[in-house]
Amino acid sequence: MTAIRRTYLSMLAATIVGAAVVSQLRAAPPTPSKLPQGDAGIAASYPGDAGIGSDPQVVFAEDFEDRSLDTVLARWESVSAREIMTLSPDVPAGSGGKQSLLMSHVGGKNHGGHLYRRLLPGYDMLHVRFYVKFDPDCAPIHHFFHVGGYHPPTPWPQGGAGQRPRGDDRFSTGVEPFGNAWRWDYYSYWMEMRGSPPRGKTWGNSFIHNPATNVEKGRWTCLELMMKMNDVGKSNGEMALWIDGALVSHLGEGFPNGKWIFDKFIPGDGGESLRWNDEKAQAERFQVPAGGKPFDGFRWRNDEKLKINFLWVLLYITKAPPNHLSKIWFDQIVVAKQYIGPLGKPKR
């Protein structure tokens, strides 16, 4: 064999091996980036949130500090059931303010109320942090605090319950204390959401299902949601949730492992899985490996004009006994382009 031929074969082998390595690297499932926790966010630089609204990374901040409820509500584009809202002296520990917003729901009189506003011009990634407190006698919550996007953006919340978005019109995620379980979880609508029996209806999908995230009534809790849009044509959208500064959930393309049971993704679970086949209009059973298979990721949109552009502070209660009083406090809402974290502590 000539030296030239040996050199050519060596180069060819190296090319084939190199291509195989690259192929393996490309095929390897992505891993979640390490997200900050605790006091590693914007709030640490603004003890009690004093002045946090002036931070260049902050898009919107609401501390409910004003003499008049009407002045506070004027900062929101859509207000429903103003009559159930009052300003309260009950505030989270460490707050630099003296007031919160109290919503008082009476069973049989209405289903709650809301504050809604747009977050313009729209963003590809946002963090939304808020504090909430439930009275120990609060009735179960049907729907709660939502973040998402509409195209075109509207100064009021839109409908669409039970309908899968097209990908160019809307998407949303609620941070919700689910029903009688009082467990924090997501309630998400997007173009590839899963359906459920008996007719494949698409109600909001959930992703946590962990008793460790159960609500503690009677105390202020800090919740923070992160949503990241996908690149059009990809499923690399993400979502994460923090409770009191601790990261309790992070989902993206390739992580975590788990399985679907219709419209519920169960992290860490494997074995028999169920899905609704829209074409066949029936349920299908299939197996996933022990420990589950990688999460598909979020394809929130198929049009880059659809962005995160609304905040909806929603209280919706449907199963309260007649005249039953439910009280819910909200405070220290901050929307920012990066991690916010719990209220910063005064510097010593």
Overview of the structural elements:
The chain is mostly beta strands and 348 residues long. The protein has one domain (38-255, 295-336): Jelly Rolls (Sandwich), CATH 2.60.120.200. The protein has helices at residues 3-27, 69-73, and strands at residues 58-62, 78-80, 85-88, 100-106, 112-123, 125-134, 145-150, 170-178, 183-189, 221-228, 238-243, 246-251, 257-261, 264-267, 271-277, 282-288, 293-294, 308-316, 325-336. Strand 11 and strand 12 (246-251) form a beta hairpin. It is globular, with a radius of gyration of 23 Å. Mean pLDDT is 91; it is low at 3-29.
Structural class call reads mainly beta
Average per-residue pLDDT, rounded, comes to 91
Report the major sheet: 8 strands, antiparallel
Number of E strands: 19
Notable characteristics:
single chain; 348 residues; mainly beta; Jelly Rolls; 6-stranded antiparallel β-sheet; 9% helix
